[in-house]
Amino acid sequence: MTVRYWAAARAATGAETEAHAGPTLGGVLDAAVAAHPALASVVASSTFLIDGHAADRSTLLEDGSTVEVLPPFAGG
User: Fold this and answer.
1) CA separation, residue 47 to residues 2, 6 (Å)
2) How many C-beta atoms lie closer than 10 Å to residue 20's C-beta?
3) C-beta atoms surrounding 21 within 10 Å
4) Which run of H or of E encompasses 30?
5) Interatomic CA distance for residues 17 and 14, integer angstroms
6) Is the dihedral of CA 8, 13, 18, 22 positive or negative?
7) What is the pLDDT of residue 60?
8) Which tens digit of pLDDT belongs to each residue from 26-63?
């Protein structure tokens, strides 16, 4: 899967995108946090999209999916 990081998630990983594998969104997020421990607190307060659709940790992934990690954004 391609994982795309936004805002604080990008700052925590130092990457815009990277690849992680897992059968569910939770598995992919766990792999990303294992690679970047600073990401744990960001993931705890983030929302997620899979191929543009809202998802939770139990959502099953298909090969080639794009996961987006969207931390809370400030501003108006």
Assistant:
1) 16, 11
2) 17
3) 10
4) helix 25-35
5) 9
6) negative
7) 96
8) 999 999 999 999 999 999 999 999 999 999 999 999 99
Q: Name the one residue in this structure whose structure tokens are 């598995």.
A: 27
6 Cβ partners below 8 Å, 6+ apart?
Answer: 68, 69, 70, 71
Q: Could you tell me the CA-to-CA distances from 73 to 46, 50, 61, 76 in Å, in that order? A: 10, 19, 25, 9
Amino acid at 11: A
- The pLDDT confidence band at residue 74, using thresholds 50, 70 and 90, is low
Tokens 């090969």 identify what position? 63
- Write down the pLDDT at residue 73: 80
* Six token digits for residue 53: 């659709």
